[in-house]
Design brief:
N-(1-d-carboxylethyl)-l-norvaline Dehydrogenase, domain 2; 18 helices; 8-stranded mixed beta sheet; alpha/beta; binds acetoacetyl-coenzyme A
Length: 378
């Protein structure tokens, strides 16, 4: 089957970006949301991003218009999916919202259409069973910003037809991205299994060590070679996304995450990060903005606990054969922009020191118990 028409459901941070890169690869794209104001905002963001890319000579001025015009914003669901070969669902990370969307979608979509969910944490098999055709259902998990991040996790559910996995992996390659197969449908898949718990850990570090967020973030950026600090990245991703991912992950597997109450507090106060002007940090508006981090601030903090938590979850993924170590390194590099592989950092910091730190933290819960793969590295 040749995919030509893509419909993206949900025009938020991920939806508008996925629509944009699909449009940039020559697909005819429909971007669907439930209110005009959401679509207007999304199309504004698409314009901003295309103009940024043209400023950097990655695309021409004529392409800005061409790609923009390849996207049709639509509110009516039936109209949105009438010609679709592939529907990419990127609605909020809430099981009940997704359940309602798939119920409505099943009524109006034709039988050949492939459903791909951009869920960041919900089990694909569980979602696929909500639909009329689980064999044509798959997870395609993009990373924020989809326009720049090269990774897409591809997650087949237990009923997904292997031909669909193949077709979607080729679609992802056609977008200029790298598909990495998540071999088991585990909560958080690969990258979020590492990333989401780190947000909570960064807040625990602040409590335990009584240092500022900028100091922790600077250490993460300059000592762990992340492109952004953890608090900065959480604000950039959206506190609502972090909160909902946390809920979905911890309700399915208590050991995967140690939730810190601060995330729920921010979420309840609608301090959703950069998009609302306030999250962990304060922002001037809802536009792309960076936090002032420095090597000087980094020198005041030892981020061993943060590295330990990342390594421990990475070790769990490898020891449970969700992915290989090579795929893990690629996923973190392409999905989160990590400039140094985690296990290289482990050698630099000292595996024994990291394990000792995790053991010290075990008083706070089994979450910190060092994984056998990590222990075997000593
Ligand atoms: N489209 C086009 N250009 C964009 C853009 C977009 N969407 N977003 C940012 N840019 C531009 C910036 O405006 C900037 O342009 P200028 O040079 O003109 O200022 C340029 O890209 C580079 O940005 P920065 O100077 O801020 O530098 P950077 O080198 O740090 O790159 C980044 C930015 C790619 C976002 C990088 O910081 C990064 O990789 N951050 C980590 C992102 C990450 O971890 N994402 C995954 C989050 S988890 C997730 O998404 C999954 C989930 O389910 C929760």
């Amino acid at each position: 089957m040749v995919l030509k028409n893509i419909t993206v459901l949900g025009s938020g941070i991920m939806g508008h970006g996925i629509a944009q890169i699909s449009a940039m690869s020559g697909y005819r794209v429909v971007l669907r949301d439930i209110e005009k104001q959401f679509l207007d905002k999304a199309m504004e963001k698409v314009k901003w991003s295309l103009q940024k890319l043209s400023e950097k000579n990655k695309i021409t001025n004529a392409q800005v218009d061409e790609y923009y015009n390849n996207i049709t914003p639509v509110i009516d669901l039936k109209e949105a999916v009438k010609d679709a070969d592939l529907v990419i669902e990127a609605v909020p990370e809430d099981y009940n919202i997704k359940k309602n969307v798939y119920r409505d979608l099943d009524i109006v979509s034709n039988n050949n259409v492939i459903y791909a969910s951009n869920t960041s944490t919900l089990p694909i098999t569980e979602l696929s069973k909500l639909t009329k055709n689980p064999s044509k259902f798959i997870g395609v998990h993009f990373f924020n910003p989809p326009q720049l991040m090269k990774l897409v996790e591809v997650i087949p559910g237990s009923d997904t037809d292997p031909s669909i996995t193949n077709e979607i992996s080729n679609f992802v390659k056609g977008l200029g991205k790298t598909p990495i197969l998540c071999k088991k449908d585990v909560v958080g898949f690969i990258v979020n299994r590492v990333f989401i718990p780190l947000v909570h850990e960064a807040v625990y570090c602040q409590d335990r060590d009584n240092v500022t967020m900028q100091i922790i973030d600077s250490a993460v950026k300059y000592k762990l070679a992340f492109p952004m600090g953890i608090f900065e990245l959480a604000d950039y991703t959206g506190i609502d996304v972090i909160y909902k991912a946390t809920q979905e992950m911890s309700s399915r597997d208590k050991k995967v995450i140690l939730p810190h109450p601060k995330i729920k507090e921010l979420y309840d106060r609608k301090q959703l990060g950069q998009k609302s002007g306030q999250g962990f940090y304060q922002y001037k508006g809802d536009k792309y903005e960076r936090i002032d981090l420095s090597e000087e601030k980094a020198s005041k903090y030892d981020p061993t606990a943060i590295l330990g938590v990342a390594l421990n979850n990475a070790s769990w993924l490898i020891s449970n054969e969700v992915c290989t170590k090579e795929d893990l390194d690629n996923a973190l590099n392409l999905g989160m922009g990590l400039k140094t592989n985690l296990f290289e950092l482990a050698n630099k910091f000292g595996v024994q020191k990291i394990v000792n730190e995790l053991k010290k933290l075990e008083i706070y819960g089994e979450f910190y118990h060092p994984n056998e793969y990590l222990l075997a590295l000593k």
